[in-house]
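Slide 14.
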Amino acid sequence: MTVGERAPERLVERAQAKVFRTDIQALRALAIGLVVLNHLWPVRLTGGYVGVDVFFVISGFLITGHLLGEMTRTGRVRLGAFYARRVRRLLPAAFLVLTASLLLLVVFIPYPRWDRNAWEIAASAGYVENWLLAAMSVDYSALNDAASLVQHYWSLSVEEQFYIVWPLLLLAAVALAGHRTVDSGSPDRGARVTTALVIVVVGIGLLSFAASVLYTIAAPSQAYFATFTRGWEFAVGGVIALLGSRIRLSRLGANLFSLAGFASIAYSALSYDHATSFPGYAAVFPVLGTAAVILAGTSHEALWHSRATALRPVQWVGGISYSLYLWHWPLIVTAPFALGSEASTLSKIGVLVLALVLAELTKRFVEDTGQRWTFWRASTRRAMLLMITGMIVIGAMVAGVLVWHGARTEADRPPAQVIASPCEGPAALMPHASCKDAFDTVDYTVMTQKNEYFHAPAECGDFLPILSYGEKRTTIECDFSEGRPGARRIWLVGDSHAQQWQGALFDLARDRGWVVTTSYFGGCPAADITFRGFRGEWAPSDAELCMRWSRELADRVAEERPDLVLTAMASRLQFADDGSGTSSFDQMTRGLVNYWTRWADRGIPVLALADPPFNSEVRSPDCVLLNVDDPRECARPRAEAQPADPVIAAAGAAQTERIKALDLTDRFCDAELCYAAVGGVPVYYDADHLNLEYARMLRPELEAAVDELLKRSESG
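Slide 15: predicted structure.
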């Protein structure tokens, strides 16, 4: 076939490429609808997060088609102009919402949370938010942080990184075909280039998919945010852009294909939840479902779904989907603080309406107007300079917020000692206390540095070289003996649920002149078990490192033979599975008995601290903050908030007097309810750790248990 014979076909394909795709606009509407509804009602639409994957496939299809069209028309890709178009299309609205988020932050959000939010806003302005979240996902302490105002920018960061790399890869494919440019006048050359493009895109897609599957198994938290685990989703869209026009479906086939695609997306959104291992294999359903809908629509014929998907409301939502995605999340996070109450159905509907209004205004006056603005449309250089200027301005505002945050927190230091009145804090729940308003008031709600359960006093030195694993360091010595010989040596070991007790122990150690060694591994139990994960399955390498620390800790303590070991852990949220088929609870109980008995057999007494009642598992971590006038609203049934604890079960099963449990549930709960504020003092610092002040108020009970166990051990 000659060039002249192929020209009409090429012109038809070009004309088709310019046809507005109502099905793609409907996919955008579906995607944003799933995401927003999932964020507003996460329990109702548990898998709505797959809407992000729908967006990724659409982006891969449209950008690849755009680049291919430019290659075909001009024989090359003007990278500067391409990047400038992306800047004009995306950044005005994105930077507007980031600026608004900074204002919402300082006006409504408690200032101890400014630090993380400010850094994430800076990362979002630089489109590296996904990598920041991936890094924080391996930081156990970050798991309890409240969601930031711009956490949703992680997906925009992934897309922007895709826009930077993708045209370079396609140009590399052209070079692979042995040509510096695409000559649209040569059918043989065009075929070779198309083949090269397909090979490169498919190859990248397969590599990325393999990485997604393997990394989701090995490191699921990081895999969710990583760019390379999502690249195959863009590649799937790219393959359709390259080959879609060559695949001719019958009208019936196109209809069935599109309906199957929508059904696949719906199935994912309705059946997936937070426990689904994602992306990995699970992402195949929403990704291929989106691909099927796009492929079915390449004929540009009206299909069965068109009557619904082409409706004006659907198309309108698809049109504002980008701005709606930007606005909805900061509004969701801010609303409870702005309204002074926990989210209700009515407030959620209000947030949705406000987000829609702001999205429409942003689409009309920022997105569309920004793209038409002659000043930067006329110059690629101006577009890039304005992008850099915007980043600098946001960076300067972030720096200002961080300086302000630092100034406000400078004076927030824990007092040297905590003295509670008879009806203050846990004293209000003492057996003979008669406090009329023990649960009706709260003295403060904002958690500052003086409430940090992990606060370390000056007596605590640097990390010791023992029980260290690369950058993972676990062990510190806090010397309160002032050099006196013969000082008692105490160990406090476990995860951060052991660390939350250190304030009370340090107060006691300071008065007694003890030397306290602490060893903590976040989320990891000090127990003889086959550990699988905390609140979900960990990467095998992380679980193995946890067990290694646990084994070596047992050896170290047995070797040093301290006067006493205190231990605590979130054992109800940690999972053991040795393949025996017995419950994790039973395995944990048995593993703790074996672990502690080894120490007890060497004459080391062990005080096991029962875990306090659940917080975030039964209420919003911000419940007290949002119910300052009536903290009783945060009370939960005792049976619900304080289920059986393997630590208590293990202490009861131990066959030695050297192992004792301290269960302080009655300092958090009465016979029926467990409280988030007692005696005017908030119980919790964050989602599941004690407020340092409250923990220090529990020193008398801790001291009595320690003295009893030491006396029993010495006499035995």
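Speaker note: The first strand starts at residue 460 and ends at 463.
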